[in-house]
Amino acid sequence: xxxxxxxxxxxxxxxxxxxxxxxxxxxxxxxxxxxxxxxxxxxxxxxxxxxxxxxxxxxxxxxxxxxxxxxxxxxxxxxxxxxxxxxxxxxxxxxxxxxxxxxxxxxxxxxxxxxxxxxxxxxxxxxxxxxxxxxxxxxxxxxxxxxxxxxxxxxxxxxxxxxxxxxxxxxxxxxxxxxxxxxxxxxxxxxxxxxxxxxxxxxxxxxxxxxxxxxxxxxxxxxxxxxxxxxxxxxxxxx
Length: 239
Description:
- The protein is mostly helical.
- The protein has one domain: MetI-like (MetI-like fold).
- Helices cover 81% and strands 0% of the residues.
- The chain has helices at residues 4-17, 22-58, 68-85, 89-100, 107-133, 136-144, 149-179, 191-202, 206-238.
- Helix 2 (22-58) runs antiparallel to helix 3 and helix 3 packs across helix 5 (107-133).
- The N and C termini lie far apart (56 Å).
């Protein structure tokens, strides 16, 4: 039963210990997390802007004339969401890196911008769905108290919508972290690319790739638990 142990020790040594290769994984993981954090920030900002514009357009009084400026920006939002959600993330990344920013070699910012724009389309629909799910009477109540539209959204509507959309936002963050692994197509050294490079050097991919999968799994489990704790805390506050 222990015949596999010497082979395991040897492969573990050449995959992680020899030449301090564990540092390569750690550096790749740092790049993955950095990329995710920047992309998440871009995605949330874009998502909120698009969601608020589209929600404001949808909530206009049907008995009155529509705001043409709001209609224009709503159309832009619809096109943005449709195009981004309708094309593969890898294709978007390659267009951004090899076409739009062909003269730039700042892989972090190009990749972060790509993933941020991609995530923003999904976040926008998640937030818009949450805003539209809030009872319309809440908006009317806020306006009757003297709040303008932005204040009513910020103080009344958004806090209620967040409680409803938190699970979906958590899933989007988890999806974003896993999707960043495709940056290998532009040569960015994330944790997966680090594992591939090490596997190529030692002519053995099994342990490096299993280790990478385990790291992603642990990150997802941790995030799932954190979002679960946050959801329970919000439910307790409602009581």
